[in-house]
Amino acid sequence: MTGDLTGAILERIERDGVKFLRLQFADIQGQPKNVAIPVQQAEKALTEGISFDGSSVEGFARIEESDMVLRPDPVTYAVLPWRGAESRVARLICDVTLPDGKPFEGDPRHILKLQLEKAAKSGYIFNTGPELEFFLFKMLDGRPTTQFQDHGGYFDLAPTDLAEDVRRDIVIALTAMGFEIEASHHEVAESQHEIDFKYGDALKTADNVITFKFVTKTLALMKGLHATFMAKPITGINGNGMHINASLFRDGENAFFDPDAPRQLSETAMHFIGGLLSHTQGITRVANPTINSYKRLVPGYECPVYVTWSTTNRSALIRVPAPRGRSTRIELRSPDPTCNPYLTFAVMLAAGMDGLKNKTVPPPSIDRNVFKLTDRERSADGITTLPLSLEEANEHLLADRVLCDALGSHVIENLDRITRIESEAYRTEVHTWEINRYLSTY
After folding, report:
1. What amino acid positions are annotated as catalytic residues?
2. What's the rounded Cα separation, in Å, for the pair 241 and 293?
3. Torsion (CA) 395, 400, 405, 407 in degrees, nearest 10
4. How many domains does one find in the chain?
5. Under a CB-based contact definition with an 8 Å cutoff, are residues 220 and 162 in contact?
6. Taking the alpha carbons of 144, 146, 149, 155 in that order, is the dihedral positive or negative?
7. pLDDT category of residue 60 using cuts at 50, 70 and 90
8. 330 phi, psi to nearest 5 deg
9. Residue 74: is its pLDDT beyond 80?
10. CA separation, residue 31 to residues 26, 322, 377 (Å)
11. pTM
């Protein structure tokens, strides 16, 4: 960081009356972490970084190699608008480095940066626009429940939608922090909501996803509610998705658009789709990272489970929304908001660029409702399904050399370790379903 930029940030901190700085970063599972420092330490943080113990962070380092440094990215500076002037707080998102200044290979933000740099060498900028869904549940005695806060449905409004004020406060806070909000509405399920913000380059968007979840949870709690991005918190209703719109730009133009091509999709777009589809089984481990994620990936709840693409129907795994032109993009519909956005965007880009490199042609689009096809019809069309469990998805990831290279051995080893630990814990736990099913019978 240059001295001029450091000085500019320090001046802004003083002008904003900031008393504390939160230095934030994400662990391997996408959980936000932070350390708070008094404003008197701001110059040191911006010039030298702040040391911390990496061995205490999931998926980071062993205890014998635990020293790490948080280095704030000045472009991520934002004041937390819900804090009063007497204790005003700002946050900075950080890169994680080793004490010698080298990037830490397990830092999710660094992994995404590497993939963006590789794409940039071919002249491409990768843009993403995620759509995050979440539930607002009631709290009881300070603990979250799964009790609905409202019983509204898709696009409902007050008095059916009781969360208009909460969503408004979230939108106001995000806007104050630099977000450009495009839409806010009630989703299909009771107490389910969605707030969409404008697309941008993938690094900024990943930062925004972490911020969005943090702000949403904080402001919901201030209203006595619990916001959850859990993939499938309640049986029998829709789960939370995080559809990801993505596009490549080159020389200032949308590289996915070709006005003279079939469906106005360029060869670049088609090869990118082909790459995503050919690596989608391994991508699923990253984009759907919990055991609970696979309770959402079942037919019947508007969630894609079949590996197809289309320009017309929403049952496809990859949809190409209208209109075309500068807005041409693909939409990957399987991810859920429990994913680490840095890693998810990284593997999406790696898969898409592999498709460009190998000129991978996707199979014919499926423009019928895939959910209504019979097994025989799907088999005849060569339609496969996404992995049925975290363990199955993990095996696909381990076997995918392109994705493994993109994530690096450190992250792959830790994702594998987390999968095995969680799967064994889940396998040996006695669940309520088993008690209800067997206790009185046997």
Report:
1. 53, 131, 133, 187, 194, 243, 314, 331, 333
2. 10
3. -50
4. 2
5. no
6. positive
7. low
8. -110, 155
9. yes
10. 5, 33, 41
11. 0.94
